[in-house]
Amino acid sequence: MIMNKIHLFFPAITFLFTITIVRAETWTLPPPDIDIFGQIRTMHASSSETLLDIARQYDIGQIEILLANPNVDRWLPEDNATVILPSRYIIPQAERKGLVLNLPEMRIYYFPEPKKGEKPTVITHPVGIGRMDWVTPLGISRIIEKKKDPTWIPPKSIQMDRIANGEQPYPSIVPPGPTNPLGRHAMRLSIGSGSYLIHGTIKPFGVGMRVSAGCVRMYPEDIEALFDKVPVGTQVQVVNQPIKLGWLLDSLFIELHPALEEDESKYTNYQQIVINAINEFLLLESSKRNISIDFKIDQKILKRAIIEKSGIPVLISRSQTQLHTQNFSH
C-alpha cells in the first residue's frame, strides 16, 4: 500500500511462564565495536492461542516467529509448548542514526538522538513490507510529514489490482476511521515523490509479512509509540541484508534470513555467499581488533545456521579466549 525499558545487551535467556502483553523494549545501544543486543526468551504456549497471537503480544513479526519455531504448529500449538521469542538482534550494517529498515528481516530499528547526559538507545519493531510486485525501495530518505488519523486516497495501481483479483475497489477517498487501511498514524517518506509511508494497519496479522504495495506497515500500538518519538526530518535507511554479521567482544555471530523472493536467483548458492560475506566482514578494519590469534569459525555450527536460517543470532567463532571465559563462568 502506498502512503503502509532499558536492558543490558549481553547474552541472557529468560523463561516466561504466562502470557502478558510485552511491547517493544528500549535497549541501551552497545558501543560501536559491539553489534548485538537483546535477549532470546522462551515462554509456554496455551492451546487457546496461536503463534500469531504470541507474536503480537511480544512485538515479533509473523515470519520471524515461524522461523524461530519451525516445529510448533502456528494455528494449534500444543498446550504448554515451549515457544522461542527471537528478541535478540545483530544491528544491520548501516549508520546508527534515525530509522534503519532491513527488508529481508522485516524489522525496523530506531536510533534516537540521545539527550544530554543520557546513554544512546535503540528501539526495534517488526514491520510488513511491499510484495514482490510492489517492492519497498532501497536507499536513504527522510520523514517529511507526520499525520494522525490520516485520510487515504487509494492509488490507481491498487484499485486496478483489486479489480483484477475480483475485489471491490476502495472508495476514491477513505476517511479516517476503523476501515482506513493506514490505521491511525502515518509518516511520509521523501522517496517516490512522497508516495511511500510508514503507517499502522487494520490487519495486524500482516505485520512481519510481504503484504503491502510498497509501504511499511506496523502494529497499531508500535506506530503509535514511535509516532511521537520520531521527528520530521529523521533519516530513513532501507537496506537489503539477509546475511548479518556482528561482534560481541571477540565472539562472531551470524544472523541469517531467507532472501527476498525477487533475489532468490542470486542466492542459489546461499552457503558460498555466506562464506564470502564472512571473509569480507573479517577483512574490515573494524573487525581486526576483535580477531584473536587463535580465532576459528566453527564450520559445523555455521552449516547448521545456513540450513535453518532461523533469524536468530548464532555464535560461529571459537577461540581459546572464549573457551576460558565460558569455563570460568561455569
From TrEMBL:
<dbReference type="GO" id="GO:0071972">
    <property type="term" value="F:peptidoglycan L,D-transpeptidase activity"/>
</dbReference>
<keyword id="KW-0378">Hydrolase</keyword>
<dbReference type="Pfam" id="PF03734">
    <property type="entry name" value="YkuD"/>
</dbReference>
<keyword id="KW-0573">Peptidoglycan synthesis</keyword>
<feature type="active site" description="Nucleophile">
    <location>
        <position position="215"/>
    </location>
</feature>
<dbReference type="InterPro" id="IPR005490">
    <property type="entry name" value="LD_TPept_cat_dom"/>
</dbReference>
<comment type="pathway">
    <text>Cell wall biogenesis; peptidoglycan biosynthesis.</text>
</comment>
<dbReference type="InterPro" id="IPR050979">
    <property type="entry name" value="LD-transpeptidase"/>
</dbReference>
<dbReference type="GO" id="GO:0005576">
    <property type="term" value="C:extracellular region"/>
</dbReference>
<keyword id="KW-0133">Cell shape</keyword>
<dbReference type="GO" id="GO:0071555">
    <property type="term" value="P:cell wall organization"/>
</dbReference>
<feature type="active site" description="Proton donor/acceptor">
    <location>
        <position position="199"/>
    </location>
</feature>
<feature type="domain" description="L,D-TPase catalytic">
    <location>
        <begin position="97"/>
        <end position="239"/>
    </location>
</feature>
<protein>
    <submittedName>
        <fullName>L,D-transpeptidase</fullName>
    </submittedName>
</protein>
<comment type="similarity">
    <text>Belongs to the YkuD family.</text>
</comment>
<keyword id="KW-0328">Glycosyltransferase</keyword>
<dbReference type="GO" id="GO:0008360">
    <property type="term" value="P:regulation of cell shape"/>
</dbReference>
<keyword id="KW-0808">Transferase</keyword>
<dbReference type="InterPro" id="IPR038063">
    <property type="entry name" value="Transpep_catalytic_dom"/>
</dbReference>
<dbReference type="GO" id="GO:0018104">
    <property type="term" value="P:peptidoglycan-protein cross-linking"/>
</dbReference>
<dbReference type="GO" id="GO:0016757">
    <property type="term" value="F:glycosyltransferase activity"/>
</dbReference>
<keyword id="KW-0961">Cell wall biogenesis/degradation</keyword>
